[in-house]
């Protein structure tokens, strides 16, 4: 019943779904029950909550509202923001959920996974249910990345800055100067064909595919490095009002921000999922806000790309790079690649100049799922390309990620653009 | 030395500038020295400050930094936000400036106007200085509208809700149902030619003129009325989460917002510059935020137009309507106009779906004037068309106004759009 | 009908009341209508509001609720905090009252004064009404001091730091070392006999007179000087946590407080009602909070006196010193007085160690006047003695003033005590 | 080496200390490692932190700064507020301490207890060290009560309101009307003899014993009940401004407070350490702030007692009642006791009218221990008598507890007083 498609990942949905569920458990494995409770700011969630919320999503949308829930009290505490489904536990208080225990949440996962498998064994999945399973899988993958960024934030605030793992892959390398790659403009099309309908999964806000006029432009062949950003810091970038958006300038003044999120005060080391490490001047700078990215670009005499420019340049590239699967969980130096664009996928999410807004003709999914993306279209900016914490199978050239201009706890970095 | 242009207002710059300066004084005339000090929130400024700040702009940029200033202390208190020029008095404390007195500020205006006239008499205006005078004139006009919106806000908070004027023109009329007007799409161009250079004034952020692809669409033939918005209120629009952006929903909950800014609690009257009046269900609803405009559009099964759509539809229309010159200072009912678009200019600024972002190839003015617009390009939305408080000569189809999605004290209203 | 009393000021009530009303006008005379509108923080009020509120108090309580009010809208805006009388204009928005104008407020004062005089001419004052007139007079005097402290605060925030007056009396002098004066302890009585009843005015919270046991102690013969406080600043007083109450330490950290309120950053000058002046190291330090006073005392190896100790020491002294009548409006150096206590009255209010709490057997006045003092008995500390801005006739040894431990805009200073 | 005293608990220090340490473990036993991490507001601490902090206190002050610490990193995270000892982990972030685990904290406890026992076995305790051990024991007992009040607060916010224990003793009973018991006044003495020195432990702020004059008064024979407080609620107590301190009124308005902390919205049930239960109208009302206690007293035509009055009345009574040892962990109905005072100790802490201030001649302990109490003497009010969560051996008539007037999460209740 699940159709393969030439353009879409050929792997069967059930296999992919199993793999995703298993991978989430692997990500949580280094965490104690106590670690899994940490919520260090209202924007983040405990690992235990990610484990349970993705399971609730599966239970509610795939098994369905009619099925007997594992625990009737879970809907209230593991629904994230679906107002139409019922009251929810306050987001900033997710860290207060000592009950259910991690053990019980893992039992919840196993129970729901078994129930979905039973459904699949009975060949009972309608096309709609397949689509919901696909959506649940994609949703699971989003929370895999959030689980990593959220625990990183929590551990960074611990006085002893513990490592999430001490066996992460590190492969230092040198990187050459940044080069400009000319890109053609014109009457192009961006966005994905609407799903469901096309066979290939894409979130609602990636559609419809639509025409855009862009002028010729140039893109940097790789992401901005820690060393390049260090020069910005040392040459007074954070003290020069004319480089900043007015709102960004007020924000860095009020918060006393003088460097990327996890950099040490002396700009020599940074906190990583492997614990504190010396800043690698050859690797991409990471954990900068849009305000910092935009100010850096102005300082560098460049600008950020629009999302249409970015997607046009990425559309012919393979989705390859440094993802969660590479098990570095930190950005790495770009490969030397003298003729093309490096690091478009993986390593760091790249802030664009584009506000998060609906594409022309955008239609949200119907019902509760219509709350998935459509209601966050104010005050956020688009990021593209995926990071070292993203699963590779989750990404594509049309993928739109979005965060507020002050958000820094994602693996967010910078690629420069300029007019041709 | 001031060249006329076929496409541009032929009236001589000097005459227009005189008229603008005189008009500002007329706007301030109903205010006592005490009224002219009122600052009711950090976003607004006292009328006295507007009178002085526009004069400081003229003195600093037209007479020039070399000229002997009227008072060396004024730069600090009447500079608005030009970081590159020097330290400034904190914005939220403009209401604490009892000194200089209104009388002295009026003397300051007369002094600087005389000095500019003396320059013009000596035929000393270079082309650059002419441009600066044009910019000062346009800047004066912007502050004319702010003077009105700011004093309206201050008076609305006075327990006795005094009228700014009691002789304003009121001309009630009935308005028919709203009709859709189909608009063609395609490969269009929007924006103004860069000024200076083209002869026609436009702000830097209106340029460069550039190509945009738009799909066919339809626009409502007039603005949304008070009666239509009242139906939204009464049918629970402010209590239905699914109509709102997530950020907007949180905002109306936190602030307890249940109706447009100046409506009375029983939804029967509204505060105007002529004092409290019964809500005119036939006249455009006004003083709504972008969040309210966007939620209303969703409730109505429509959407807000993009700024490209709006400009394309407006580009062939005359700049005619209910402006400050009509001396109503409040939106009026649309004329019956069965075949075209009414109220595109004047009455109310129309919120668009577009975030305020730079046009492709945007270049800010150089020097301190580069701070005019370019540094406000985060977190704001575009409004188009002008209002009942805008001077007619200040407007054009390419004019971009911008405010935060929660701002409501401008004369902001709604025009609906939909896909074709 | 107004009885004189051997122990009480013999001057007739009517004469004293005339003098007080006239003195308030004299205090407001240096202020323009614009100055009289300034409200620089929620705790302060505009001078115009003080002028009108004291008049409303007189109209409401002396002429009575039955009399025709001058303007029925005034009750709402000029009632301060009497919840039982009706709704009130929000305190932090008193600065938005451009209407009524200062001219109209002065007419209001004249009108109500005339009406009270007409009552007095008709010999119509009952004993109750006499008491209310006495209370209104005392209330007027309280607002005279607040008018001065409030305008001082507002002018201090003006970028040009204007002087309230430029003709204030300045009489510098040197002061010798501080000496300890031993005081006897034992079973003493403090507080005033209840008024009305005794003939001598006192506020309700000064009564009843009651017995207190105190141990022998010593008082400093004069107030702490600017020079002594400067030593505390320079020797790191504001950087030594062990000197501070925990709440006070958190407060100075959060607010970045490193010196008395009106001292310049370089600790060389201070803002006064006569404009900026060099700090007089011989004159009392002024505008310190209770937290600062208490920390200074600990640093000096001493403590603050309790209010019982202070009153016992002051009870035999004449009410003499540097008051508003001396027209310095700033603390002056103590007279050399080798055997007694100097500056117990006038110059600076002296923070005591005592929380503001009811005396044993305290009874608030009945009706709305019961809200005068009784409801402020939480979170405030007692000050004693009066200041350079207090009218001399307003003070006595039993007088209790009270402010929050972070308040600094009153003329508050320090006198040290220690155990015997 | 540890001297017994006729007036002091004769049980040997070592036995008492063992019992206290063991009791803390028993209190933590019902909590999972996840429960033990909960911090629901900045004022509270996780149970794990209480377990570790009391151990750090023992290690630092009894074993001494010279001894090899169990873990050198613990000083930073388990020091509460001793500024003089070094930097500390921010209080509101104690809930982020997933590391060390509960298991490791329990190992820390065992290790330090063993080390102290080894010291005692070697007979190595000097008199000073004995005193420090006594202080550590008293400190341990304080945290036992906080552990209970803090976990109660955290569980109350959990959507499922879990019970801390489901086997708590409940013994309902009816209670008669409240009666007044006359108390004599005069020249009395309160406070404890200074420790160390007297043999009997008391905290520094209970000393010196000193003379106070009090007038004759009357005390209610028992605490205010839930039923009596319900009448206050139902008769509009929370809506009547004249009953409240001004600051308290503003606070209940701003926070929307309409009932005691753990009461359900319909005033039928309350959250207890045994989970939600019907409100017992015969048992003492509990979890009210000082503002609520003071307003209730005014509504009842009474007042709160001063701490001198309370201590005088309690000084001849045995320390008997409903304490932690009774294992109810909730206040119970008073025994019928027609001639005396019931519930003076145990059940609920009783708010007094007295601000927390130093007694005349107060001397803080020297060194870091001087930070124990002395620096909290601003903005807090005294409570007396102990609660159902206090260990009986921790209490005495001179015991002073103190909290902010808005604090409600302690077992705080009300006893009325009135003038004779």
Helix content range of chain A: 25-40%
User: Which parts of chain A are unreliable, with pLDDT below 50 for 5 consecutive residues or more?
Assistant: 1-6
Round the mean pLDDT of chain A to the nearest integer and report it: 92
Percent strand of chain A = 5-15%
N-to-C order of helices and strands of chain A: HHHHHEEEEHHEEHHEEEEE
In whole angstroms, the N-to-C terminal distance of chain A is 48 Å
Strand order of the largest sheet of chain A: 9-8-7-10
Main β-sheet of chain A: number of strands, strand sense, barrel status? 4 strands, mixed
Counting copies of identical and different chains, the oligomeric state is homotetramer
Q: What's the alpha carbon Rg of chain A, rounded to whole Å?
A: 21 Å
Protein architecture, described:
The structure is a homotetramer of 420-residue chains. Chain A is α+β, with helices and mostly antiparallel strands and 420 residues long. In chain A, 30% of the residues lie in helices and 11% in strands. Chain A has nine helices and eleven strands. Chain A has helices at residues 13-28, 47-63, 74-78, 102-121, 127-157, 226-234, 246-255, 290-299, 307-314; strands spanning 180-183, 186-190, 210-214, 217-220, 269-272, 275-278, 349-355, 381-384, 401-403, 412-413, 417-419. In chain A, the strands form four sheets. A four-stranded mixed β-sheet of chain A has the order 9-8-7-10. In chain A, helix 1 packs parallel to helix 5 (127-157), helix 2 (47-63) packs parallel to helix 4 and helix 2 (47-63) packs antiparallel against helix 5. Chains in contact: A-B, A-D, B-C, C-D.
């Amino acid at each position: 019943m699940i159709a393969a498609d030439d353009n879409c990942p050929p792997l069967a949905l059930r296999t992919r779904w199993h793999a995703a569920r298993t991978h989430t458990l692997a990500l949580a494995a280094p965490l104690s029950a106590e670690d899994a409770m940490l919520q260090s700011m209202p924007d983040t969630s405990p690992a235990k909550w990610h484990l349970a919320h993705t399971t609730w999503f599966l239970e509610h949308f795939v098994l369905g509202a009619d099925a007997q829930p594992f625990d009737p009290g879970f809907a209230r505490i593991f629904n994230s923001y679906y107002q139409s489904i019922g009251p929810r536990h306050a987001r900033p208080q997710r860290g207060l959920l000592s009950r259910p225990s991690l053990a019980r949440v893992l039992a919840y996962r196993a129970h729901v996974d078994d129930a979905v498998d039973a459904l699949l064994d009975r060949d009972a999945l309608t096309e709609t249910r397949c689509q919901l399973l696909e959506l649940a899988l994609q949703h699971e993958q989003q929370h895999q990345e959030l689980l990593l960024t959220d625990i990183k934030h929590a551990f960074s605030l611990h006085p002893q800055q513990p490592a999430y793992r001490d066996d992460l892959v590190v492969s230092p390398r040198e990187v050459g100067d940044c080069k400009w790659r000319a890109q053609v403009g014109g009457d192009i099309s961006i966005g994905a064909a609407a799903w469901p309908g096309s066979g290939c999964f894409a979130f609602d806000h990636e559609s419809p595919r639509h025409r855009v006029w862009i002028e010729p432009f140039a893109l940097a062949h790789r992401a901005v490095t820690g060393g390049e950003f260090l020069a910005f810091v040392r040459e007074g970038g954070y003290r020069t009002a004319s480089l900043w958006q007015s709102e960004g300038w007020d924000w860095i003044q009020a918060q006393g921000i003088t460097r990327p999120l996890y950099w040490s005060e002396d700009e020599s080391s940074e906190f990583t999922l492997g614990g504190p490490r010396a800043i690698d001047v050859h690797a991409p700078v990471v954990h900068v806000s849009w305000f910092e990215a935009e100010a850096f670009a102005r300082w560098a005499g460049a600008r950020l790309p629009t999302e249409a420019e970015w997607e046009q340049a990425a559309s012919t590239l393979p989705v390859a790079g440094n993802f969660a699967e590479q098990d570095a969980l930190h950005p790495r130096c770009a490969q030397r690649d003298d003729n093309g664009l490096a690091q478009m996928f993986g390593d760091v999410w790249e802030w664009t100049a584009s506000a998060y807004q609906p594409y022309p003709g955008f239609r949200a999914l119907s019902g509760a799922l219509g709350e998935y993306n459509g209601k966050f279209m104010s005050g956020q900016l688009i990021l593209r390309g995926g990071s070292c914490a993203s699963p590779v199978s989750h990404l594509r050239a049309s993928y739109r990620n979005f965060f507020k201009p002050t958000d820094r706890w994602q693996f967010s970095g910078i690629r420069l653009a300029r007019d041709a």
